[in-house]
UniProtKB/TrEMBL annotation:
Keywords: ATP-binding, Kinase, Nucleotide-binding, Transferase. Belongs to the carbohydrate kinase PfkB family. It comes from Glutamicibacter halophytocola. It comes from the Bacteria. The lineage of its organism: Bacteria, Bacillati, Actinomycetota, Actinomycetes, Micrococcales. One of its GO terms (cellular component) is cytosol. GO terms for molecular function: ATP binding; phosphofructokinase activity. This is 1-phosphofructokinase family hexose kinase. PANTHER family: 1-PHOSPHOFRUCTOKINASE (PTHR46566:SF5), 1-PHOSPHOFRUCTOKINASE-RELATED (PTHR46566). Residues 24-305 form the Carbohydrate kinase PfkB domain. InterPro entries: Carboh/pur_kinase_PfkB_CS, PfkB_dom, Ribokinase-like, Tagatose/fructose_Pkinase. Pfam families: PfkB (PF00294).
Amino acid sequence: MIVTLTVNPALDKTIELGEPLSHGAVQRATASHVQAAGKGVNVSRAIAAAGVPTLAVLPGASTDPLITALSSDKLAHRTLSITEPLRTNITLTDPDGTTTKINEPGPALTAQQLAELGGLVAEEAAGADWLVLAGSLPPSVPADFYAQLTAQLRTSLGGKCPKIAVDTSGAPLTELFAHSAQHIPDLIKPNAEELAELVGSFDEAALEGSIELATDCAKKLLETGIGAVLATLGAQGALLVTEQGVWHGSHTPITPRSTVGAGDSSLAGYLLADVAGASAPERLKNAVAYGAAATQLPGSTIPTESDLTVDAVTVDELTSTQGTES
Ligand SMILES: O=P(O)(O)OC[C@@]1(O)O[C@H](CO)[C@@H](O)[C@@H]1O
């Protein structure tokens, strides 16, 4: 079972433009579609599509369009009832696949609502394989929410605490490493920009362009005691850095259609391989295959196994500290 928590879910509205986006102009859309999303919801979608049990935990009224869409999509979910509407995020897609994304802040949550959400997660995640904490936090939520929740769950669930993966950015990401080891998750999935934010010394373009630089940054994070860093590097593929070794995975060149949800799909691919007992390089291979498949699909569409081209992924071992990882 893989449980996901999306504190700030979103209805993703994708608007396809017939001409490249022109700032300040009136432009006509050629098509538009809406999908219930947010990072954790997207991870759950990919996992459910692969036939593995998953549950998406999120705030939202039962009548909110996002929640009714999850029900009609038959995605297993549990909600904390709130009265404020959830947010809508807009993606504008140029004909060449370039995307412009505008994310709303989302509804505020009170301290009591956050405590209740944490309680729901503790109930649902006890005994699960993985808990994924994913996405931005709404404006009122303290930046250390993921760090504190990680520590609380480890204390309250003890041996029943699942492995915890976090995919977020900005202060909620840096806060993971600002407390004790108990607050540090088992896995993070930064992109190049987030890796740069974490190590604070390189920019995104430099990291995406240099596998060596990205490896050095991810290895620095291992010193904090984190189990694994899965870094997604856009067209450069992805890196998996663990105590046991470092692997780089890449896909043969693809024509991108929309990168929205590609990182979520990569994380889902990694977790699916992990719960199936795959080795580290196989987990990375599946992550890269899922990310590449998502990039070739429109808007926030999350891939199913039939969209994958696993044979087009190459994984190279860059260094190994303890022989072969199992
Ligand atoms: O604002 P956040 O929470 O950082 O990101 C939200 C979001 O951009 O992430 C998903 C793609 O990864 C989309 O479904 C969604 O709109």
